[in-house]
Fold these 4 entries.
Entry 1:
Amino acid sequence: MAIKVEVSTQDEITVVAVTGEVDGGSAPGLQAQILPLLQQEGTLILDLGGVPYMSSAGLRILLLLYRQAVSRNGRVALAGLEETIKDTMAVTGFLKFFTVVDSVEQALTTLKQA
Amino acid sequence: MPGGVNFAICSRHATSCTLVLFEKGAPAPLAEIPFPDSFRVGNTWCMVVFDIDYERIEYGYRMDGPWDPAAGHRFDSSKILLDPYAKAIGGREVWGEPPDWNDPYPHRGRLIFEDFDWEDDRPLEKPLEDLVIYELHTRSFTRHPSAEVKHPGTYAGLMTKIPYLKELGVNCIELMPIFEFDKFENSRPNPVTGETMYNCWGYSTVGFFAPKTGYAATGPFGMQVDELKNLVKELHRNGIEVMLDVVFNHTAEGNEQGPTLSFRGIDNQTYYMLTPEGYYFNFSGCGNTLNCNNPVVRMMVLDCLRYWAAEYHIDGFRFDLAFILGRDPWGTPLPNPPLLESLAFDPILAKCKLIAEAWDAGGLYQVGSFPAYGRWAEWNGKYRDDIRRFLKGDEGMVPVLAECVQSSPDLYGWNKQGPTASINFITCHDGFTLYDQFAYNDKHNEANGEQNRDGGNDNHSWNCGVEGEMDDPEVNTLRKRMIKNALAILLMSHGVPMILMGDEVGRTQRGNNNIYCHDNDLNWLDWTLLERNADLFNFTRQMIALRKIHPLLRARDFFGIGPTQADIIWHGTQAWNADWSPGSRALAFMLRECQAGQAGNTSPVL
């Protein structure tokens, strides 16, 4: 499953926009692309508005990102989470690790306030 | 091994073994890889396989070996077998979805991620004497539409009801079986109603290391492990312990007519107790008996409990028909059962509560004489029967009641374990609810399709004058008073109280005392009762609160035996004058704190 990753910087915060389904097949590639971005910056915004489906393997990348971010005193904001994914994350306890927002703009505002 | 999965399985009598891999849900295998003989160590085959996508693979084994039932061997290489240690099991992802009966591999081993973030959670390790246990069925607790939860009948649904449990004041929930089982095991139409009857309670294990997938809202996404762990974590955060009802006495494979899912095909002679002719001993009443005191099986049981304690932070275990765990491979009760001893002294399980249902279907009834090693508590079946008989007004019950409220020193005084040896209960999943206890003289089990023959007959119940539910306010008032009497005795008794789900709001099973097969409102908790019987709920809540603020009710020693924290002083209808005669039906007591051997503060509590 092809997956597209676009990286940009907005207000000095790294924003990663992901498009495509994240499953066991696409997750390792995605992880390899995103993790290095946390090497410099502890804080990251993931725009997941283009992700209609994310399997357990995908959620585990998010968990890994969260742990890396915490170790750098940073945070991970998730923008545009699809409802089913959000619900799965809530039920399994993943959701509360993240700053959950509707859009990248909202993420920027929230992260700056913190 | 980075990037690889180590598949390992043991069998004493198999001659060869093949790893079978499936794409998730596929009818036919993706690959079959025979274990080369050089990969066998002793009786164990192991092999690391690389490039496996955890989420897309299901795995099983084929075992070759003799088909010789008289010698105890039932190998059949046409069967694909579930790993007894599988951490997650597919095939029944959604509760109630009819299975494909032609599936060559109905219960499928799956791989799991073990990266759940527990943060600072750990088992609560509350003193046993402080517990108020609440027994519940995960699905039935929130399945009724009136529960009004987003994910009815699931771990997630239960999680949203934590505030209710907190308000009630219970600090431990005991979950009826949550190991993977098959709802469709022995499913059949009800001859009376035509409704399908299921294995709804799950006292029949398919896999001992895997949570019931159909109880997880996220089961279809393969995240049942995380969902259950999150439930435990949230309960702990709210000061509530989690105990599991575990069924090690038999498995879902039944007798020689049952399906071959796992153990039978892996090493029948090791896993099951067999007669000299090779048939299955049936001490469980469920077709077969797990051979718990074979060292390989014993190790599996120990591994299993350690896994749940360490990986799921489970606080304790209640063992269904526990006395089977004390029988040798030929069924004879052992004087010093190695499994029970191992569990009692295990360093990983050291702080876990261990509770035995101290009887089995083979006729052994060991309440009070279960080999406890100072560690095992018991469901006190005698307390249940005695309190029921006292409440319905049987003669001669006052002296018996006195033993019960003191945590049955007549049963447990000898073993130095103290009052916490006794888990006190008046009702549990087997039998009437507390409401039905005072609404029915007789069981009404027609809906179970066995002409009312199933279920116990010694209910010691009293219908308060009319059989069944009715509108007479006088009868209903009496019933409520009887329920309150029962709850008051239970929560003021020395020992550890256990309440059955819904008894605090007057739940009914319409006189059925054996509802294991009903996935309907006989099992489901009707949450509108909370409003209708608010007085019962408040009474229960207040009695629990009272218990919590009076340490004397939870004293570690029996009253009045040797150096002790408290004395118990008996009264009758007149102060200082208890009436112990057969016709007496009233007893009161006062607990008085002792200080340095002298009578000190008095603290009358009942």
Note: Chain A has five helices and five strands.
Entry 2:
Amino acid sequence: MNQEEKNILDECIHVNKCERLLCQYWENVRFTVIRAFQVRHVHFTQEDIEELRNDVFVRLFEHDRKKLKQYDESFGLSLTSWIKLIANQTVGMYLRKKDRIGYLGVTPLIPMEDLDEAFTSVDEMPRYDARQILMLLQEMMKGLSHNERLVLQLHFEQGLSWQDTASALNRNINNIYQIKHRALKILKEIIKNL
Amino acid sequence: MNSCLDTITLARYIGRTLSDKEKDETERHLSECRSCREEFAMASVLLKDDAAEKSPAPMEQLQSVFQTIKKKAAQFYEWITVLPYESGLQPAFVRSGEKSVSPQIRFRKDVSDLRTEFLIEKTNERAISIEIGIFKNSIGAKNIRITLLKEGGGVVSRLLKGDHELFENLPFGIYRVNLIQNSEEKGNVCFEIDETGLTER
């Protein structure tokens, strides 16, 4: 954090004058919100961006500027990165709340036990089968160590490239490939024994 | 690590300043919690963005939005995990004898000449309980009917017995609490509750 940023932050958290902080990060937050939608491959409108940009600053300022006071250089992140983290979190919470169809694919719209009744047409059968396979895979993943699981999840579930997965986990790319091969070998063994 | 990653832990993990033990615990949690994993994955991509820093915006353009933001910031309550306390409204887990600590929100609101105290507890991932205390001149108010209305459907109405009333197993959503004393309408308290916290309306 340079001296100017430090002064702006101090003015906000110690003197409760946050105008300069708002101005300083206004465009940064807007950019981060847009990127947060883009990396999640979710459609957005200008209204979404404006609303969320405001929400990010509300979260920074609410409860007596708690989120700003929590920031510490010893985290190893710049203040800009901290604010980006809050912005990303805000977008994630907004999208979960809005329950954007097809966004997370986490919670089935119909419980599994009701599927047989719900999906009676031939067209729906592949989707039913795919979901059964997914549930089976999720069970099999429990046979992996948490590191092996996390590497596969970041790549296959979250869509990170192997290089991005390595960067995110602060590991060498070769190490990631080793973990990947080991994990897939274990999964194949589990499938063989089913 | 039983609860989800807080922002500080996530920041320290990304900033590579956790101890080896903390790092291992964090990665274990990430492998078990999809929402934290998603947040982490997106954050790691966003923080890698090497787009140039954006220029500051002029304050003249932001004055009115700044006032709006400041007003909103004062009316939002985040979930807080606290230790049990002795007096006043007690969390459900204290009454039930359970030892787990759930995230809570407490706030007070004056409605006409009544003081209302709210204790909202997140009892599981998508359910809450709302405990409402009503006081007049610091003692429990009498002859109060509390009606809890949820936007989109759901009404519960009860006569206040004692000085507080508990509504359990409620979903997130927008609620209006209507108070009537001796058949006279006193007023309403409106709020929205979701996984992030409570926003007064």
Note: Residues 7-54 of chain B form one domain.
Entry 3:
Amino acid sequence: MVSPIRAELRKLLGLPTARVALVLGTLLAPVVVLLNAPYNRRALAAGTLPDPTQLGLRELGVGLIGALVLGVVVVSSEYTSTGDDAPGARQLTATLTAVPHRLRLLAAKTVALVLVVAAQAAVTAAGTLALTQALHGEYVPMPAPARVVAVILYWVLTALLAYAITLITRNGIVPLTLLILNSTVVSVSYLLTKVTDLAAYLPDIAGAHMFLRTEDFPVELAPVTAGLVMTAWVVALLAAGAVLFHRRDA
Amino acid sequence: MITIDRVSKIKGKTQILYDVSFEARPGRVTGFLGPNGAGKTSTLRILLGLDRPQTGTALVCGRPYRKIDRPLTTVGAVLDGSGAHRARTARAHLRWVAASNGLPGSRVDEVLEVVGLTGDARKRAGRFSLGMSRRLGLAAALLGDPAVLILDEPVNGLDPAGIRWMRGFLRDSAAQGRTVLLSSHLMGELAETADDVVVIDKGRIVLHSGLADVIGAHRTLEDAFFALTGTEAGGPW
């Protein structure tokens, strides 16, 4: 089992897209903290910033885009055409001839993705929160370690969600567009919470409650409940993806 | 040893393979011959566990491919293209393939040398010519020094020197006791390389025999092929 994991780590870290996702995902949040620093400092001093204790945790969110891209490309790179000479040829053929047992392959991919995203989340969270401390230490306390662990878990689960959806679609464009739009431009999930309370149980909304508290929210999920709700989504989608991957012709 | 036993496959609503059965034995080159679309690639994909048949079994050394542990040490396969993501260098591709089966990194340089790609090891696979892609695919197949070689149209895209080299390589492999199965729609090519010939047409095996027996009363393998498949030399153009 170690050999397929080592191979999947090599494959993922060798992809240019994955490298860009790693660098951008790690640097985006600290850069946003720096760019927002003058505004935040004034707002903190004036006491107009809502819920200042969560400032660092909120600003981490933008880096999540890296985890999304990593989750998608770990699968979509298997399905992209390898060249114009052979339009039907894909890396998946090489992957499955090397590791033909479908579930063993998926287990190796999952472990590789979890390791990479957890490491990225840990570095980004530590950097962003330390920077927030350095800039606004007198107003913003360092979050409890449990909340930092919850952030890392949220990133890992988000990457796994993207990975599971791409296993089902076998194409990176649809999940990447949907997930990035939803996490940056317009949060459809958040808008849905204005329509129905049930939207609080959508994976991205529920998952964020593992480490963020919101006051004006219809359904208040405790951190552990929030984690369980998001984990249930990920497990269900991964199971569906695995069944399809196992059954479909490559 | 490769054993394919009564394999049938339906894709969508079309049946593409009907009770396909044949064997490929060690120490011999078995040519799998048929026109384009006859079912050669579909049969090889089932043999490699990529696609599932509706009925029948396809075994390599007595086991289904999906059940073989570290399969690259038993089987080397080359299908369409190199299998390398276009953004990866040849070496990076071979290194992950080697790692997946616990093979040492030193094998990467060895197989690059065998297929003559040492000088292109740092080039991205997306910039490879068709011939270079075929060589890279073959390099990956050789990483585990397998006893069985399965190649789909191995001379496609190769220049005359490459074709000559491939022919020698396949003959040498069989001489060393390996089982070699290659598909081709080029009859002249098989006549030069194969010991045994399996002819498939419209998803059915129409002949499985030694090369000399296949040619039989016909003047050449080409004549035998057209007589067996009932197609005419030359097309509708």
Note: The two ends of chain B are 41 Å apart (CA to CA).
Entry 4:
Amino acid sequence: MSLTLLNVVLAVFIAICFVGANAAYLVWCERKGAGFYQRRPGPMENGWWGLLQPPIDGVKLMTKQLLIPGGVDKAIFMVAPVLAMFPALISFVTIPFSDNIVAHPIDVGVLVIFAFAALGGMSLLVAGWGSRNKYSMISSVRAVSQTVAYEIPLLITTITIVMISGSLNLGDIVQQQLDGFLSWNVWPLHKEVGFNLLMPVSFLILFVCSVAETNRAPFDLGEAESELVAGFHTEYSSMGFGLFFMGEYANIVIGSCLITILFLGGWSCPFGDLGIFPFTHNVGWFLLKIYLIIFVFIWIRWTFPRTTIYGLLNLSWKYLIPISLFNLLLTAGLLKVF
Amino acid sequence: MSAELVLSGAIFIGLAIIIPIVMIMTVMLGPRSDSAAKNDPYESGIKHVVGHADQKFSVKFYLLAILFLIFDIEAVFMYPWAVSLRELGVFGLIEMTVFILLLLTGLIYILKKGVLNWR
Amino acid sequence: MSQPIELQKDETFVLNVGPQHPATHGVLRVKMTMDGEYIYKAETVLGYIHRMHEKMAENRTYPQYMPNMGRLDYLSAMAFNHGYALVVERACGIEVPERAEYIRVITVELNRISSHLVWLGAYVLDLGGFTPLMYCFDDREQILDLLESVTGSRLTYCYFRFGGLYNDIDDEFITGTRAFIIRMRKELKMYAKLVTGNIILMKRLQGHGIIDKDMCQRYGATGPVARGSGLNYDVRKNEPYSVYPELDFDIPVNDGCDSYARYLVRMEEMEQSLRIIEQALDKLPEGPVNPEKKPKLIKPPSGDYYAAVETARGNFGIRLVSDGGKNAYRLKLRSPTYSNMHLFDEACRGMLLADALAFMGSLDLVIPEMDR
């Protein structure tokens, strides 16, 4: 790759635009989706079908007062929203959108994403602690125990995939799923492991975990508004809140990218490479898949009531972790036998 | 390789500049007004709250946090094993099976002890 | 489920839930002493929306006080109208025409359904599910439109008059109500499918927020809260008033004692209200809606009078002491949620915050009625 200043600036610009536009317009999608499920139109006033709503909201957030309450730990308080947004954006560096669109194909890409995801969980702790607010305090304790509980099944499920592919590089993992949708890791039938019935189950585990890791309903216990007002971002106004908000959506995109890459064959065409344009392995398929998953995220959010913190922890420690460990052993055994 | 490093480094730096700029712009664009009530930490509109948020706080999840440490380290051990499973062969598989079974026993023990008993 | 967790008193802190908190649905303040996320004790603080309704009764004439009833319980204002009309009619010995009685029952039951719909939506919202609220408010809107066409207002009704009603209902109202009954039956089936059977909802409600029969009786809890604890008490059946004895309906009672039992009782009550409305519409007689003979000035003879009605939340009792003057000498309102709320402290001890707030929602609190 020839490296000129222009290239670098362009790459940075594209990366940030993609993430920013995604975060902004997912809010619009979310509100439209909510409207769809609730028999109402959703935002309609600004622009055609409310399409101008996200930039207008952004301007509104920017011109509001960034209130720093008296008792807060100022440095921590200001760092937290940046910490919420930053790791989510950084993770995009290693995500392969297609075989040649990737900012930096790191060999341990999976681990990089997990490392930054954990940092995102940290921002909730820091925000709750820095706010010096009792609701935020409870919320941050909850958020940490939740992030911590769901990281383990997430890691272990990913190990299963890593084992099959023999690589931690996200690009390599996709390379092995390019022969049509039957070669995707989500199916029990796999050329490496033979027949493993638990694969769809571990896909579900990964999905549940990414819902929990992104603090989305029904696992949004950190910001359970009927109990903790707004949880960790109770004290945040203006863009401080805006960054948390965008960070959440950026995290959703990361989560669905990860699911797509690990289980749904990344940028591969479901019918194999047919050689005619839409049916080749290209970035369009990747985007289609991640937006489908995001749609399911929104669907779930507007359908289910919230769980409780103990229900959430029980689900992880009593079911998800043992199942994913068992699946790991099973896959390892099958990999040997066949 | 170095080109890619520079590129991702540039993205890092770009983000590190842009996000604080957004925050600073907000501070500059937004109105500034202060009052005692506005500066209070929010607690459902109660002015004179009892206690402070950074007082001693009973966390019931601390055992789970310790449990997390154990499992997280376990997962870190597993990654290199998973990548090189084919080279390690049956020996590696048995080793890891024993390791995971030990951990599962620990998990069952701690569940029986009632760490996850809530009301 | 398991042995109770021991709470340490020395590690508690005080958390104010309310007056400005999303879970309290109004300006109620609950001062919770918490140990981590467990509630050690909860103290209810009232007075944030106190408007001296009882004192106002002593300074206003009887007809002037009628609009106050709509301001007490904004969700089932009609039943409160009924209670006040009932007590003054008893005191003055005013006869109510049959048609007016039936119309009263129809409007009160419609109002009961709309109140339960608000509760259902807000309750699931408390549990974190936003969508049912929109569906419930859509259905409620139909009721409000119907009631608006006859009463002129949408929320704080002042429809009842001593001995009769403000005005008669028309055919449009009757056909509209019949259409609504058909629609509502369908909607209730949908709620049963979408909300009642939801696994997360069931897990959060079943076995949580237990109040037994004994506790209900000690605190004087009534309405769906008592009926959810197996206590078969409903003013409409136990101390019948108006034309309720002539109508055939059941009082849903559930022995579950938990939040889910109270939930089911309310869902069943909506069905029963639909039955009542259907029968009342069939039996609706012709005639005037106001008595021919009615005293020009309402001046009850001196004495002590009492009337109770079943509102959407329970027994609303109203005691009137008259000295023969134009104003009441003393008017005591016994509102249902005031009693229902006070078992909260005893019942929620040792509960997790999330469960306690789910429990509070199942009590169906309306703050202006509690805090008169």
Note: Chain C is about 50% helix and 15% strand.
